[in-house]
Amino acid sequence: MVHLTTTDMSLDWLLAPQLRAFAAAGYDVVGMSAAGPHVPNLAAMGIPHVDVPGFTRSTDPLQDLRAFVQLVRLLRRMRPDILHTHNPKPGILGRIAGRLARVPLVVNTQHGLYAQPTDRWQRRLPVYAAERVAACFSHVELVQNPEDVDTLVHTLRIPARKVRLLGNGIDLDHFDPDRIDPAVRAARRAEWGVADDEAVVGVVGRLVREKGIVEILDAAHRLRTGGHPARIVVVGPADPGKADAVDAGAVRRAADDGVVFAGERTDMPECYAAMDLFLTASWREGFPRSAMEAAAMRLPTVATDIRGNRQVVDDGVTGVLVPVRDPEGLAGGVRALLARRDEWPSIGAAARTRAHTDFDQRTVIERTLAAYRSRS
């Protein structure tokens, strides 16, 4: 079984629990992507890695063609029984390459269509066309978001028999607030310079515009000048290689304005435990992992009203949905939850219950295994 992604980071950070579960179920699991610093982590888990050097996150058609040729050659040499593709580029190229290499079962996970029905047709047309063509080469389409199921079946006319709702999930034992020592919460807040009377509003994500970081920094300024006792803490790395990377100057100005940039972290349960509220302002999501983690950690959430966030945040129950690309809306959502401080325990409990019901990664693993078995 080969799982194909653009980078080894996705195999390590996003898919590792699934890869280990598939290996435990008796499959010989191989990760395939461009090689990077996460390959040793995969090896430590017992997951071999095959390098596809042509895979990059760029939009260079010639480079993509080279990657496609490499992929076909690799698959023909390896002759896997199952090819499971992820991410947009491997999802398009991989499904086609898998059938050309005569892989018996080609499965694709749709983590979130890169276009939504509300987008302009100039954006929707190329994305929908590419997905419609690539879906002709797969046997099973596992779709994380129910809104995308509707688009694939009714708009793109992909046969319903091959489209299955997968959902998304996390390790609920790992993201369990009851496992975190209160002293750890205090230590993280001290590290971030949080005053005793301040509420920590946590943000998790790369510093790119698509994650709504610019609007969040604007909202943070509005909250600060409005006298609201809230400290915005952003956990996540800079991503200077992306075209929409947030300007370093904007980050410096926000830091001078009181926003804390905690950088990339490996202690996420402890970071969530140090937060009081969670904030996500993404423009586009499939089924956001960080919002699920926040829910599992009993955090009331302010989120933009988009596909993905709507599946995680129950508006008015586990958090608040606000308009996308609207700094004042974000600030207003935070103000609304700050005013309901006495309700945070009940809101957080509802979020944790929702996580147990809908965001358990074991359900995702079992649905995927069922897809493999259905074609055996």
Automatic annotation (TrEMBL):
GO terms for molecular function: glycosyltransferase activity. Residues 20-173 form the Glycosyltransferase subfamily 4-like N-terminal domain. InterPro entries: Glyco_trans_4-like_N (IPR028098), Glycosyltransferase_grp1 (IPR050194). CDD domains: GT4_CapM-like (cd03808). This is Unannotated protein. It comes from freshwater metagenome. The lineage of its organism: unclassified sequences, metagenomes, ecological metagenomes.
